[in-house]
Design a protein that fits this description.
The chain has 613 residues and is of the alpha/beta class. It is built from 23 helices and 22 strands. The longest helix has 18 residues.
Length: 613
């Protein structure tokens, strides 16, 4: 079969701050056939995305094609005019970026952004474009697609944003998809839906795909062949089964060894940090929240709840993990705690014994200092026009009045604290890797000397090796600075290794909470079981098995209204009780040691259904 994409001896150069062009990709060759998925794997900086973007004839700023050729069905992409490339992109070749937040226009509703691609390439207009947009959102299992289509990007979760990007890419039914870490920021169950959609597109439409990733567990589910890249070189290439079972290069074996095992009670924190006799550093009670939108006539309507009657405590020096699917309310909870999103009336959020105002601007400067937040994407939270010393220096000025040499000495100390050379103070975010930018964000948070840090998916955009280093850094800083973390994540394996306690959220509610070892072992909420079962295994065929199991036992993702009084998980639950779960709110079941599950079933029933002993 003739290759749809053929890259021959590609050489790419980059120009660092020194101004001297250096090779970043060295004589790379790739072929992708119709219906085939070829994965490019490796650490950050390996050259994966640079090679993948060559399929669009695109070289990022500061890079250039030095040698080689790129053919799409015999057409030389690098020789095309700008107009020819513009017509190619979106219609024949589509790109899904790693950071949907950075790619979506914040001032346009997401539905209009999807329809724009249809208009641009004259695929559909008017009502047809609107209908196609809703179909695409529904295809990618976004709940309430009509409502989501009216929202702006900031009103959607990270996982929803990534699927919106997928919908935009699929709108014109392209022949080649370039997927740049498309599931890195997704929760485990949403990831399954996106992977399923990718496999379906390749199988049913004959679409060819380049899949850039650092996650071999994910690659094992979708890729036909794997190219392993390290420092711009292809160091190993082969069929997926051969790479997984018989890797020949040490570097490939290192990547395989970095894959985290699925969570289990044996892999959890051994000695949870809960300070006997102490008071919570922050307490959340009776807390609900919603998003509002403006109607066509300028009036404000309140949409469905995004948080519903949340109650939790965070103790000094502990790590409380908050897990759940995209859209479950995890990030909104962090924003409410930080004062970045107002709760509904009746909420009580206390810092020590002080009742906090709902909005950050009404809190005292010391209250702001004591609660810091690290966002998922440092690309969005670091000003690209400001140097590193500006980012870290701002809290030093605001909270401690530092200036001059005192401030710059402290900036140097903070950079060293997070494992960066003090020379990084003069760099701009674009001159840093993803891991380095996240370390700067961590340094900025610690500059305020907080009591609690809200960590919102801080590792999700990092490759496996870099994420492991940043995680170890955060563990060390927690011990040395006696700080508490609220660790929001969809990575259950990481949560198992760092969290003292876990709160599992679904549809804006906490449905399962307790010590990590208790929550990850039966009996637990049926939703917790679904999350655990959805963590990818490092073997081919796992995706098909779990999809079949979920469709047979729990059904696929359903549209859930967060203000439902009965159990919102009932439409997906394999243990649903007809006439009860759809009528009565789930009671709080005490499972021992403070482990609470919101479910109609008692401990014995859950234990028997989940195979516990």
């Amino acid at each position: 079969m003739t290759a749809f994409l053929r890259i021959e001896d590609l050489v790419v150069e980059g120009r660092p701050p020194s101004g001297i062009w250096v090779e970043t990709v060295h004589r790379c060759s790739v072929e992708v056939h119709p219906g085939e998925v070829v994965a490019l794997i490796g650490e950050s900086g390996a050259g994966k995305t640079t090679v993948a973007l060559a399929a669009l004839g695109y070289a990022r700023p500061g890079t250039r094609f030095r040698n080689g050729r790129v053919f799409l069905e015999g057409r030389d992409v690098l020789a095309m005019s700008i107009a020819e490339k513009r017509d190619l992109r979106g219609r024949d070749v589509a790109y899904v970026a790693q950071s949907a937040q950075a790619s979506l226009n914040p001032s346009i509703p997401v539905g209009e952004q999807i329809a724009e691609s249809l208009h641009l390439h004259q695929v559909a207009e008017g009502a047809d474009a609107t209908r196609r947009t809703i179909e695409l959102l529904d295809l990618l299992d976004i709940p309430h697609p009509e409502m989501i289509a009216r929202r702006y990007p900031h009103q959607t979760s990270g996982g929803q944003q990534q699927r919106i990007m997928m919908a935009m890419a699929l709108a014109c039914r392209p022949r080649l998809l370039v997927l740049d870490e498309p599931t890195t920021a997704l929760d485990v169950t949403t990831q399954i839906e996106v992977l399923k959609a990718i496999k379906s597109v390749n199988r049913n439409l004959g679409t060819a795909s380049i899949y850039v990733s650092h996650d071999l567990s994910v690659v094992a589910q979708v890729a036909d062949r794997i190219l392993v890249m390290n420092q711009g070189h292809v160091v190993e290439e082969g069929e997926t089964s051969r790479i997984l079972d018989d890797a020949r290069e040490d570097y490939t074996r290192t990547l395989l060894g970095a894959v985290k095992p699925p969570p289990s009670p044996e892999k959890t924190v051994v000695n949870p940090t809960v300070i006997s006799g102490s008071e919570p550093v922050i307490s959340v009670k009776h807390t609900s929240a919603s998003y509002a939108r403006q109607t066509l006539f300028g009036t404000i309507e309140r949409e469905q709840y995004v948080l519903h009657d949340i109650a939790l405590d965070v103790w000094p020096r502990e790590v409380l993990a908050v897990v759940g699917e995209s859209g479950s309310g995890k990030s909104t909870l962090a924003r409410v705690m930080a004062g970045l999103h107002p709760p509904l009336p009746g909420a009580e959020i206390t810092l020590d014994d002080d009742l906090l105002a709902g909005r950050a601007r009404r809190r005292t400067r010391d209250q702001l200092r004591r609660i810091q937040i690290i966002f998922q994407s440092p690309d969005q939270s670091l000003n690209p026009e400001r140097r590193v010393d500006d980012a870290i220096g701002r809290p030093l000025e605001l909270y401690f009045g530092m200036s001059g040499s005192e401030k710059y000495d402290r900036i140097a100390d903070l950079l060293e604290l997070v494992g960066l050379d003090p020379d990084y103070a003069g760099r701009f975010p674009a001159e840093l890797s993803g891991g380095e930018r996240q370390r700067v964000s961590i340094a900025r948070a610690f500059a305020a000397e907080p009591d609690i840090i809200l960590c919102d998916e801080v590792l999700s955009a990092l490759d496996t090796v870099v994420a492991a280093r940043v995680l170890e850094l955060m563990k060390d800083l927690r011990e040395s600075h006696q700080v508490a973390y609220v660790f929001i994540s969809h990575d259950l394996s990481t949560v198992a290794s760092i969290a003292d306690r876990v709160a599992v959220m679904y549809a804006g509610r906490i449905v399962d909470a307790g010590y990590t070892s208790d929550v990850f072992a039966p009996p637990h909420h049926p939703y917790t079981q679904l999350l655990i079962n959805s963590v990818p295994a490092l073997r081919q065929g796992w995706l098909e098995e779990v999809i079949t199991s979920r469709e047979a036992e729990a059904g696929m993702r359903s549209n859930v209204m967060l203000h439902d009084r009965p159990c919102p998980f009932r439409m997906r639950c394999p243990l649903v009780i007809a006439g009860t779960c759809d009528r009565e709110p789930a009671p709080a079941r005490e499972m021992g040691r403070g482990h609470v599950v919101m479910c109609q079933h008692d401990e014995a029933t859950l234990l028997a259904a989940q195979g516990g002993t």
